[in-house]
Every structure is written in C-alpha cells, then in structure tokens.
Amino acid sequence: MIATIGASIAPGIALLSFFYLKDRYQTEPLHMVIKTFVFGILLVFPVMVLQYGLQEEFYFGDFGKAFIIAGLIEEFFKWFIVYYTVYKHVDFDEPYDGIVYSVAVSLGFATLENFFYLYSFGIQEAWMRALLPVSSHALFGVTMGYYLGRAKFEGTLSKQRWLMIYAVVVPALLHGCYDMILLKSKHHYLWMITPFMAFLWVISLRRVRKVQSKSKMASF
To answer: How far apart, in Å, are the Cα atoms of 34 and each of 16, 28, 111?
Structure first.
C-alpha cells in the first residue's frame, strides 16, 4: 500500500513542482497551491458520481464518453474550482498564476485517479500512468490556466468573457481527443498517443513562455 501511495503521488508532485518553479517573478504562496491541489483531489468524488449517474441514465458512445463524460465534465469542474477559490483572490496577481493554480487542481484530480488505478491494477503501470494520464492532466491545466490568466489581465470585458469560455472549451477538447485516441486505437494506442502528447508538451511550454513574459510586465 505504501508503495502504491508513493507511486501515485510522485508524478503529480514532480509535475506541480516543475510548473510552480517556473513562476519566476512572484512565486505563489505554497499554502494556496497545496489547498488548490487538495481541492482537486476532493473533486474526484462528485465528478465520479456525476459521470456514473449520467452513464446510467443516458447512452454515450465513444465520442460522448471522450468529449462529454471525460473532457467537458472534468475540465468544467476543474475550472469551477479555480474560478471560485483562487481566481478572485488577492494572490492571483499575475497571468502565470492561472497556470500554477490550474495545474495544481488538475494534478490533485489526476493523483487520486492514479491511486485508484494503481491500487486496482498494480504499480507496474506506474511509469506509463505518469507519462500519459497524469502528464496529460497537467497539460490540460496549462491550457486552462493560460486562458484564465489572460482573462484576468487582458482586454475588454467582452474579450475576457470569451477567454473564460476558452478556458473550459479548449482543455475539454484536448481532453476529449486524448480519450478518443485511447478508445479507438486500443492495442496500438502508443503510436497515436505519443505524437499527441509531444504536441501537448510543445504548445504548453510555448504558452508558459508567453504567459511568463506577460507576468514579467505585470510584476513591475
């Protein structure tokens, strides 16, 4: 059990540390980041109940499971947590903060999911889980945080509203694509998911650099 807990938590903590330490100008209070991470863990339970209930009541094909049950529901509730717990908080004071907090809630969610999976199927799956599902949640969080950070500090009210919509829709679409690849490619999924993950990492790191430049201006 101790090994399972360690293998479940380690990738989430490593990825969160990576993105947290990229906040070069005004590092977020650690207690706020930990709180958001814990909220992400707690979010798993209501989301699982909702997903189960919807699938019991309605028929969802692979497309619906990927883009609605997984993508839209999970990313909407992550967005909800970030918006109502930290978005209006005084510590959300630069664009990069959107990425820090969105990644934190996403990795909290991914960490408990990872524990349930490893507990059921064994820690021999730990490396693949770290490289794929846990990492993908972090990268969906980067996308969400990119738009949230822009929404708070950029443009007109109308533009901010659109950016808030993008903060849910774009990560939900990426999440849906990820799940669709896994559902459709089955035994050969690595041939498709590997370039998709590479694409996610490239665009995520570009967004990190772009938001860092805006955070630098906001810090002076």
So the answer is: 10, 10, 13
